[in-house]
Recover the amino acids of this structure.
């Protein structure tokens, strides 16, 4: 390998993100916090100090900062990309950022803190391995802090890091940081979040964000925020899960435009079920059940484009691989069916009790007709009952007749046809659902099958919790 | 000058993969495969699976999808994922190219050859047609990227496409960083960034009303480096101008523009001098505003090394039209641009 030449601009010492070829090093994180807690600045600091900001981006930030009469570059401008955001100095929508260190690559969802944008926090947290929650050291815990911790608990985000920001504005006070850490532990415990790591940072100055051991916080000797993120274990373990495979499309080369295809003859009788393994592992020869019909068969083959091209047949597939399954028997299977391990199959039901984060502008009322999207299946549904609404102060479910925007509550639904529903607390991918407005198509709610609030009301040590 | 070691010495992968470094051994150079028996995907495998899942969702839930195909590297990778998603069947949708009339001839040739080889239906929406009959007028600065929006929207309406795959990546630009994977457009093709649907888990909501359509970005979570590493891993063929070659160029606004039918150096008082340089392109588009970069990267491994240490973003280095203002891309996107 020759010495690479730079193409444009001066080369500086950089951390080249080529190391990310190592397995399992992609970490998805989401930021959360209230307005003005400094999230965008923290994200900017992470990107800047990990040398993920390129020269032209920095030039632009410095230019705009100067135009506004600022003395130092406003790092929030790195992520606040929309015109309105820069004009109002706030973050409106989830911004996704990509950065890498020598140890890991990161997908970062920078979520706005304003109360009306809580739905974006739900968006960011639904795919996150870790939520980084900011609080302002001067203000302490706010309603939004509780809401974000509740959302994190509800969506079962595996890890939570609380960054006590603006520690420079409380004179780097250990007493204040300890006090807030105790507050957070209390609220987190009441909301069922077992694994919280708290650390003092200054996003503006950079204390404890990337490098550990800020001289201004000698009383904190733990890892920096970036070090914490580099060390967190990721993802689920397919070997500990039951096999679930929602069918996306049926692949039959002969049917659609088959005659134009070069291999039309070779695959004349091919019929495969394409999808992404939602959980677990499947092997050729495994007995499976097709739901909701309940038909049993065995896996005859597992294909990908690569295995078909090379002839090296796959013997197994695991989550989250995209593959195509062939089955031993000709059975009637369509999009929306779930292929599951026969010996540990989920129940099918038309009555679902679920926990929802309501994201619609109009309230959710008993009798509302909606669409429910679960895995690859969309069915009509009617809201039977609103069981209750989570009161964030008491962390209790209070009786309620409706759910308003940003409310979290329990509902019962009656479906027009059955789904293979599983408890979200057991199976995230097959326990999640959307409620959709059948008329304008808008997404109304993030739904979780079962009593996802149980964990909130009865906190337990979560399996796999990460302790520093 | 930074020297970087592409081999991964911190795990056993590099040793397992053998000695790296010679041309054509991209796989061993970039150990990306999980070890047998381990049930965990590498980063590229995870991104590939996510992209295939997205493409299959669209085919299942929409009636008339189309894939925007320019012959540029992102659209080539996206098409590669589409082929993988439906194997051994054919790609079940056509491809659409919005031709500015200022394209690099070798990219157009690549586009046509690819469509022919894969037996794809290729639709072309031509900016030149719009200029010829007066529906559009040439801009003062001569660039045609902003002129693509109208032909694109007309093609979507005319063919009644309801889902449009684009190769946009969130790492490209600040406004794109805010884009959902499934991005709803109203009947005027407009994007309303303040009113986007929440996008939860991998449950994509593609429902839309008649006249509306959905832009879908299967490469949302890929970075420029991921794209190149994937091109190496899959040995994907690209137009030659992505690799170092000699070309007559001149400097304009800090960019190297090729001398060609649509981009001539000024000969007036501020004359721009022409020289032959070894260059390559990081993006391909309208020749009159797409810059080349000085580069000796003749192979995909060299490009990966180069992208890994560059200090300038892909668009910052090569797109004059994004330098117009802080929100140039946002403004174009709101109007229905890619």
């Amino acid at each position: 390998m020759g010495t690479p030449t730079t193409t444009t601009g001066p080369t500086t010492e950089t951390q080249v993100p080529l190391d990310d070829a190592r397995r399992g090093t992609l970490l998805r994180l989401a930021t959360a916090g209230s307005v003005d807690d400094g999230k965008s600045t923290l994200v900017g600091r992470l990107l800047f100090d990990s040398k993920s900001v390129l020269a032209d981006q920095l030039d632009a930030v410095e230019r705009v900062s100067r135009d506004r009469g600022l003395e130092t570059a406003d790092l929030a401008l790195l992520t606040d990309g929309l015109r309105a955001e820069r004009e109002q100095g706030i973050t409106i929508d989830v911004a996704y950022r990509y950065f890498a260190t020598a140890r890991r690559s990161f997908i970062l969802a920078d979520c706005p803190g304003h109360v009306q944008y809580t739905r974006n926090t739900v968006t960011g947290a639904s795919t996150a391995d870790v939520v980084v929650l900011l609080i302002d050291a001067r203000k302490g815990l706010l309603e939004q802090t509780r809401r974000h911790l509740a959302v994190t608990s509800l969506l079962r985000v595996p890890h939570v890091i609380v960054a006590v920001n603006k520690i420079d504005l409380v004179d780097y006070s250990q007493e204040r940081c300890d006090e807030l850490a105790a507050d957070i532990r209390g609220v987190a415990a009441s909301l069922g979040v077992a694994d919280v790591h708290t650390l003092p940072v200054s996003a503006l100055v950079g204390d404890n964000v990337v490098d550990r051991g800020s001289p201004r916080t000698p009383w904190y000797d733990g890892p920096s925020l970036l070090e914490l993120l580099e060390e967190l274990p990721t993802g689920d373990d397919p070997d500990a899960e039951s096999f679930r495979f929602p069918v996306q499309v049926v692949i039959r080369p002969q049917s659609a435009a088959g005659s134009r295809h070069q291999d039309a003859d070779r695959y004349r009788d091919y019929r495969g079920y394409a999808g992404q393994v939602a959980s677990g592992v499947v092997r050729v020869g495994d007995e499976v059940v097709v739901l909701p019909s309940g038909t049993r068969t065995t896996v005859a083959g597992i294909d990908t484009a690569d295995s078909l091209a090379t002839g090296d047949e796959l013997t197994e597939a695991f989550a989250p691989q995209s593959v195509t399954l062939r089955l031993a028997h000709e059975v009637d299977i369509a999009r929306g069916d779930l292929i599951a391990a026969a010996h540990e199959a989920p129940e099918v039901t038309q009555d679902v009790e679920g926990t929802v984060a309501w994201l619609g502008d109009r309230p959710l009322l008993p009798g509302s007709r909606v669409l429910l999207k679960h895995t690859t299946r969309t069915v009509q549904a009617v809201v039977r009952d609103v069981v209750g609404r989570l009161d964030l102060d008491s962390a209790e479910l209070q009786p309620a007749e409706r759910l308003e925007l940003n409310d979290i509550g329990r509902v019962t639904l009656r479906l027009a046809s059955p789904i293979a529903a599983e408890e979200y607390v057991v199976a995230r991918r097959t326990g999640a659902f959307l409620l959709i407005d059948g008329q304008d198509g808008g997404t109304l709610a993030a739904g979780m099958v079962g009593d996802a609030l149980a964990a909130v009301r009865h906190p337990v040590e979560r399996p796999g919790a990460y302790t520093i | 000058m930074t020297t970087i070691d592409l081999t991964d010495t911190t795990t056993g992968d590099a040793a397992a993969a053998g000695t790296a470094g010679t041309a054509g051994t991209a796989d061993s150079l970039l150990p990306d495969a999980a070890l047998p028996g381990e049930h965990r995907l590498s980063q590229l495998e995870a991104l590939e699976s996510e992209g295939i899942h997205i493409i299959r969702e669209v085919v299942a839930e929409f009636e008339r999808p189309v894939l925007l195909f320019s012959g540029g590297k992102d659209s080539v990778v996206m098409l590669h994922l589409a082929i993988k998603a439906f194997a051994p069947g054919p790609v079940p949708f056509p491809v659409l190219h919005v031709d500015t009339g200022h394209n690099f001839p070798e990219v157009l040739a690549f586009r046509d050859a690819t469509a022919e080889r894969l037996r794809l239906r290729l639709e072309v929406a031509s900016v030149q047609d719009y200029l010829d009959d007066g529906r559009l007028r040439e801009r003062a600065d001569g660039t045609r990227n902003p002129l693509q929006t109208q032909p694109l929207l007309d093609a979507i309406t005319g063919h009644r496409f309801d889902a449009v795959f684009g190769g946009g990546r969130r790492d490209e630009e600040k406004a794109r960083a805010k884009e959902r994977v499934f991005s709803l457009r109203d009947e005027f093709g407009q994007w309303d960034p303040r009113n986007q649907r929440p996008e939860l888990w991998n449950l994509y909501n593609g429902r839309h009303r008649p006249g509306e359509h959905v832009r879908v970005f299967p490469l949302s979570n890929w970075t420029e480096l991921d794209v190149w590493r994937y091109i190496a891993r899959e040995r994907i063929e690209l137009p030659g101008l992505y690799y170092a070659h000699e070309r007559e160029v001149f400097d304009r606004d800090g960019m190297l523009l090729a001398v060609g039918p649509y981009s001539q150096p000024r000969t007036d008082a501020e004359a721009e001098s022409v020289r032959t340089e070894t260059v390559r392109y990081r993006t391909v588009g309208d020749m009159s505003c797409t810059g080349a970069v000085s580069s000796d990267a003749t192979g995909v491994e060299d490009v990966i090394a180069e992208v890994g240490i560059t200090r300038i973003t892909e668009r910052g280095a090569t797109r004059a039209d994004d330098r117009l203002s802080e929100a140039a891309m946002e403004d174009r996107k709101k109007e229905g641009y890619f």
Residues 349-457 of chain A form a domain with the Elongation Factor Tu (Ef-tu); domain 3 fold (CATH 2.40.30.10). Chain A touches chain B through 105 residues (CB under 8 Å). The two ends of chain A are 40 Å apart (CA to CA). Residues 6 and 12 of chain A are 10 Å apart (CA to CA).
